[in-house]
Amino acid sequence: MSTRHEVIVIGAGISGIAAAIKLRESGVNDVVILEKAETYGGTWRANTYPGCACDVPSNLYSFSFAPNSDWSRVYGNQPEILAYIDGVARDHGLEGITRFGVEVQGAAWDESTQQWQLETSDGAMTARFLVAAAGPWNEPKIPDVPGLADFPGEVWHSARWNHDFDLDGKRVAVVGTGASAVQFVPQIQQQVEQLHLFQRTAHWVLPKVDHHVPDAEKWVKRNIPLFERTLGRVEYAAMEAVGVAFHHPKPLMHGLQKVGQAYLRAAVRDKELRAKLTPDYLLGCKRILFSNNYLQSLTKANVEVHATGVDRVEGSTVVGSDGTRAEVDAIILGTGFHILDLPVAEFVRGADGRTMAEHWAGSPEAYQGTVVAGFPNAFIVLGPSLGTGHGSAFAVAEAQVAMIVDAITTTRTKGWSSIDVRPDAQSAYVDDVQAALVGTAYSGATCHSYFIDANGRNSFSWPWSTSEFARRISPFRPADFEIAQPSVVEPVETEVTA
Length: 498
Description:
30% of the residues lie in helices and 18% in strands. It contains 13 helices and 20 strands. By secondary structure, the chain is of the alpha/beta class. The two termini are 24 Å apart. The chain has helices at 14-25, 43-46, 78-91, 179-189, 215-223, 225-247, 249-267, 271-276, 294-297, 356-360, 393-414, 423-437, 467-473, and strands at 4-10, 31-35, 98-100, 104-110, 115-120, 123-132, 154-157, 171-175, 194-198, 205-206, 289-290, 303-306, 310-314, 317-320, 325-327, 330-333, 348-349, 378-380, 418-421, 481-484.
C-alpha cells in the first residue's frame, strides 16, 4: 500500500469518519484513515461496559447527512450506536481507505518538503495534511494508587471492560462515580455479592426521559419526514434550554438543581446516604449525569457508598482516604479519560520541533478548537474549548470538518504549500472564549472538574450555544493564517465526487 498521501486522518471514530467522507465528497480523493483498532467506532467501539448508552437523544446523536429512523430507544445504547457508525462508514466506502491495526507513534512537520512525516506501527508514512481525530475519550486515565499494581484480584477500567470475569457473587470495588459508573453500577449491582462504591465527589443526577420507541413511531418517522424533523427540533430546543441554563446559572441552573434535589429525595429515603450523595456545588460545574436507576441502586442492601477517595490498596483491601476499608475480589475503575492532556499531543511535533503538549504547557488551546499555531496543515477534531454539557459530538465534529474541508480545498486550488494559523489570531480566539466563560456554570469556583486544566483554566468548555458552532467554527478565514508561497505543489482543480 502507498506510504504517501495527501491527507492522513488519525482515528476511525465519529470525527475521523466525518472528515474522510466530506473530504472525498469535496474532491480530495487521496485520503487514508489510520486506526489502531480493528474496526470503526472510536469511543463507542472501546466502551462495552454493561449499560453503556448515550446522554444525547438519538435523533440528535447522528450525522446530519446520514439520518436514522430506526433507533430502538430515545437514547441509543452502545451496540446500536456502534452499528450505526460502522454502517455509515461502510455505506460511504471507507473500507477501501482505512488501514486498521495501524497505530501512529509520531508525526513531525518537515519544513523543507512542506509535508508531515509519520512513524507508525506499519512503517513510515508521509502526508501533506494531517487530521488528528482520535478524540478526547480515547485513553483511559488510570489513577496512581499505591498498591494497586499488587492487587491479587482483577483490575480493569470501564473503557476496557473485562467480559471474561464472572461478577456473580463477587465482592467488587468501584472507584469513581462519573458518567460511566452511573451506567454500569446499576447493572453489576444486581450480580455482585457486595459492591463498595468509592465516591470522591458526589455528582448531580437527573432523571432520563428515555423509553422504547414503538414500531409505529419508527414507521411514522420513516414515512413522514416532517414528523421526524419536528421531533428533532423539539429535542434540540430542550437541549438548548439546558445550554441556556449553563450560560445563565442564576436563576436558571439553580432552578434545574431543585429538580436534582427533588429527584435525590425521592430516590434515596435514607438521610445519611442522601447526605453522602448530595453535591456541595452548583449543578453544571461538573458534567450533569442522567439515570433512572443509579441512585436507586445505591439504596440496595449489597451496596456501601464510601464518600471518600482511595488512599491505597493493601493486598485485597481497598483503603479509603478516610480510613474505611473494603476487602474485594475485583476493582473497576470508572476514572475517566485523558481529556485535556490528549495523547495525540505528546507525539505530534510542529515546525519548531516541539510537541503540541510542549506548546500547550498544560493549557490546551486551538484557533476555533481546530488548528494550533506552529503546526502547519494540521487539524484537530473535537479539540480544546469545544465541549458542551448539552450538545452532540456529531454537531461539533461536523462544524469543524466543514472548516477543515474548506481549508484543505482552498489550499489545493490556490496552490499554497501550507497554511499556519497566526499566533495573534489564535490568542484572540482563546481570549474571546475565556471571557465568555466567565460567570457560566462551567467555571464554578466550588468544584474541580475535568473541564479545568493543569493550570486552573477551563480549556474544555464551549461558552456559546450549539447553533454558534456553524457560525464561529465552520468558516475558513484565510486572513487569520500565514500562507506559504510560492507553492511547492501545482495548483489542483477540485472535482466534486458523488
